[in-house]
Known about the structure:
This protein is mainly alpha-helical and 227 residues long. The chain has helices at residues 3-13, 20-33, 45-52, 56-68, 87-111, 114-132, 136-153, 157-177, 182-199, 202-226; strands at 42-43, 72-75, 79-82.
Amino acid sequence: xxxxxxxxxxxxxxxxxxxxxxxxxxxxxxxxxxxxxxxxxxxxxxxxxxxxxxxxxxxxxxxxxxxxxxxxxxxxxxxxxxxxxxxxxxxxxxxxxxxxxxxxxxxxxxxxxxxxxxxxxxxxxxxxxxxxxxxxxxxxxxxxxxxxxxxxxxxxxxxxxxxxxxxxxxxxxxxxxxxxxxxxxxxxxxxxxxxxxxxxxxxxxxxxxxxxxxxxxxxxxxxxxxx
Length: 227
């Protein structure tokens, strides 16, 4: 390994800590995805700040970002509305997500550092283990960590930003409609994608990405029938 490549791997293995605004965004997104903030609920900026123990400005930045992503809706003079969940809209999101995720997977497979490939392999094991324990919070944490690692490894911030909001909506929809058996099936598809990226085959990673979207589309159709 060259000295330059070693420095790149070391930098990837030691990410800088997230800012307060990023922490606020991540924690609010988790509350929305897991329905601890229920669809249709109206909350206040001050109340969210007290709940998370984070100051006004980081909370405001997080709300603005979540509003742009469609998870929150700012109501002038009234507060903040948690957006509803719609199975039909989710299938349209998947239609958009398919080519973006395919590009992300191909790019990450080609460009990931050795340290990032090790990270994908570790996450593949952890998400399957979380599913085996029926640990939904652990599963979602692995899912988000995978999305973040792909966003870094693809080396294309434009593609990563386009995908970010779609992934959050997917986690939320899946959490709302999942049955017991969906956890292990979803974990298997995610682990297959992570392993393909780790192995460095762009075509295999793209195919694994398509299989994950296929699974989610079938899942959405079933949910649409139940809704």
